[in-house]
Amino acid sequence: MPSSTTPIAPTPNRVPDVTVDFWIIKLLAVTMGETAADYLAVNLGLGLPMTSAIMCGVLAVALILQFAQKEYVPWAYWLAVVMISVVGTLVSDNLVDNFGVALATTTIAFSIALALTFGAWYASEKTLSIHTIFTTRREIFYWFAILFTFALGTSSGDLVAERFDLGYLTTGYIFGGIIALVALAYYLFKLNGILAFWLAYIFTRPLGASFGDLLSQPSEYGGLGFGTTITSLLFLGAIVLLVVYMTISRRFDKDDALILGGE
After folding, report:
1. How many secondary structure helices (H) and strands (E) does the chain include?
2. Which of 34, 74, 107, 173 could staple 209 via S-S, CB 3.0–4.6 A?
3. How confident is the model at residue 254 (pLDDT cuts 50, 70, 90)?
4. What are the pLDDT digits (tens) for 1-36?
5. pLDDT tens, 89-98?
């Protein structure tokens, strides 16, 4: 039994701190999720059902790897985010394209699902903070929330860009402006930090998806025509570089902490 003077190490958080590089890689991940789903389903000719089945299997493996970690490990965490971004896009696309559900309906449905997830999470844990994801139950709630934010972002982004016919660029500006307002409310008007985080997290999805479609879609559909292959590879390369940077930075931070702790 440790003595009363023995310090107790804090339980490690299993998700990353919210920093500038967090938002950069998150935006890259959601953009790639949009273009990669289109690439697999359309360019490779797999179709939505087959693509969905394959990617759900890959997501299951990614989440098993993530849950096996007892602290934040950049490659495992961001692999799960990228995969859940792709699956979130496919869930929305399947409902709209295969089952004929209106985008307005899916947007409302995913909003309700996300609200119910937050409600169950708070009822169980009395917090929605991402700074205390150190139990399996909290992490399960966390990933359900992430999945629904991605599905909601896909539906709401497509609703504004396609059904409201505002185009991808205008849609990106709209959601970028909303995120800027959330940031302004947080820094100037002391908006609750947890609420600000989740609002920004939700709206970065349609922002990224809009710019992903802008880059990848043909000019006749309002895009720049780079294609889903090039766009997906560009964003995947950027994600890999950032994950390597995060891994190296985290290792240095741990080494510094050990040095300071030994003094």
Report:
1. 8, 0
2. 34
3. low
4. 444 444 445 688 999 999 888 999 998 988 888 788
5. 899 989 999 8
Q: Would you call 222 helix, strand, or coil by DSSP?
A: coil
Contact 137, 120 (CB under 8 A): no
- Counted domains in the chain: 1
Q: For residue 2, is it within any domain?
A: no
SS3 127: coil
Let me know if residue 196 belongs to a domain.
no
Q: How far apart are CA 56 and CA 145, in angstroms?
A: 17
Whole-prediction pTM: 0.88
Contact call for residues 88 and 147 (beta carbons, < 8 A): yes
Instruction: Tell me the CA distances in angstroms from 19 to 171, 174, 199, one per residue in order.
Output: 25, 23, 16
Mean of all residue pLDDT scores within the chain: 87
CA dist 169 and 148 (Å) reads 24
**What single letter denotes the amino acid at residue 179?**
I
Residue with tokens 């859940």: 84
Which helix or strand (DSSP H or E) is residue 29 part of?
helix 20-38
pLDDT, position 252 = 66
User: What range does the domain containing 167 cover?
Assistant: 20-174+201-255
